[in-house]
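We examine the record.
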Amino acid sequence: MLASPPPASALAVLIPAFNEADTVGTVVRVALELTPQVIVVSDGSTDGTAQAAHEAGAQVVDLPQNAGKGAALLAAVQAATADTVVLLDADLTGLTLAHLQRLCAPVLSGELDMSIGVFEGGGFVTDWGNKLTPHLSGQRACRRAWLLGVPDLGAERWPEPAITQHLKATGARWAYVELPHVAQVVKEKKRGFWRGAQARTKMYAALLTYRARRRK
């Protein structure tokens, strides 16, 4: 664990968000306990996400159109100035300062190049999905310069496979870090069952076909 909050120049928290007004403020307030440099990129949101993030204390980048999580993440990385960045989804529940310290400590200490957070005990649906495909987790910590070097980062609607591929290509040191009692609000709850299920299907299709698409 970190003994004290790192200086703003050392660490930033980056939160891509699309229509997450109900939860983004809570995530921002927890992130601000870790560092004052918290950047939310509203990816063409239409529900007040940008306002909720701003009112919670984040620096907000408001993209005019929905371009996908990859484009939002790239905009956040480009807006950050810290050496190390923590990536968080905007729909997390149960998140605490201790979770963020646990996630970023191995990177700040130089033990790892990237830590990847996985849920444990936060809820059946999110635990199951995270454990089935932990390499697709959106909760990560790494060096900003390394992340900027990920090919296709801004081109992919879901950037996690591109990040994973770059981990392999660069021989980076990485490990999973458990985040007890953290979960996400499932798409079926946010958008209604059928629209949520459709969005989930599209997401996994894009995530799991990354390599095939990039070989073309």
